[in-house]
Design a protein that fits this description.
Elements: E1 3-7, H1 12-17, H2 22-35, E2 43-49, H3 56-59, E3 64-68, H4 74-80, H5 85-90, E4 94-97, E5 110-113, H6 118-121, H7 129-142, E6 145-148, H8 151-161, E7 168-170, E8 196-199, H9 209-219, E9 227-231, H10 237-243, E10 252-255, H11 261-270, E11 273-276, H12 285-292, E12 297-300, H13 305-309, E13 314-316, H14 321-333, H15 338-349, H16 354-369
Parallel strand pairs: 1-2, 1-4, 2-3, 4-5, 5-6, 6-7, 8-9, 8-11, 9-10, 11-12, 12-13
Helix pairs in contact: 2-16, 9-14, 12-15
Length: 371
Amino acid sequence: MKRLLIDINSIVPYYVTGKVNGIGRTTLELIQALAGIKNLPFEVVLYSQNMKGIGGRNTGLPFKTKHLYLPHREKIDKLLARFPIKECLTGYDIMHIPHNFEYVYSPEKCVVTIHDAMFFSYPESFLGHDFARKNYPQLAKRAKAIITCSENSKKEIEQYMQIPAEKISVCYWGVNHQLFCPKDKTTNKYTGNNPYFLSTSCDIGRKNTISVLCAYEKLLHQNPEHDLVLVWRNPPVEIKEKYSSSRFKNKIHFATGGISDKELSDLYASSTAMFFPSKYEGFGLPVVEAMASGTPVVTCDNSSLREVGGEAALYVNPEDIDSMTDIMEQFENRSLNIELMREKSILQASKFTWTVCAQKTIEVYKKCLEV
């Protein structure tokens, strides 16, 4: 039987700190979904590399595992890529790299998931985009196949990296519908029983959270019933100080330092609406998480966000503060048909499941493995 090796190094932080970034999260969801599909026509092996031995065995999934006791560092990885060490250690036929890039000995035996081409179309140097522009295309051009998570990302990978369209497969991310689902409204430590608007995945860069704050600040002149909750791991000191002053402190709340998935799902489900005015997304996971929770979403008609939000979301220009305030007023005054919006949101979110993502990914594997 042919052997598929999946590099799961991006999920290691989850088993160290209980937290993981978006790519690690989607990788974990994918391999969990793969484990739920019976009679796979190939053998799956999970590959990890670190000195602590944390990796595939920590997942508890029914796959074989291979672990290399070496630091997962650029200098080490570059050296390893000069020799067929992974090939000899694991005997793989195809390796899936689900985190954009890895140094490898045999690129022609790789499937690479490139989540977006933001490093070309919306570059932010502090995110390592200079490295991405230089290195990602080199691997992508030599790889057996490319997977990405939206049609917009496919178009941009084709355009900026000169990759043939037929080499790129779109496998939309899913959402955990058991975790993110409609539920009875609950009180929370931020607003108590007060209704509130929510914004998640916050930042002052492309996430554009500052526009939500400015829009809500204008709404405050009307003494609104709604509060604003921002799920913001580490807001800038000046932002937190300004919006924690006496004028705002009882209305604007920062959920800092990271929150649990359960707390996040409760915040989604109990909020009146989720504001996500991002200037660029490869997919836009918070949009589908909110919709799956039955929460109306206000986002922007750019990058992949229209694909994810469909006809269920409301769209604004990311710089149009007045329009955002106006939408907040409509929710505040209940002039929108919120129940209909909730129904549309749940229906739209139902299109995105990890089982479907896994099934589409399997088709890519089968084509590459010729099984």
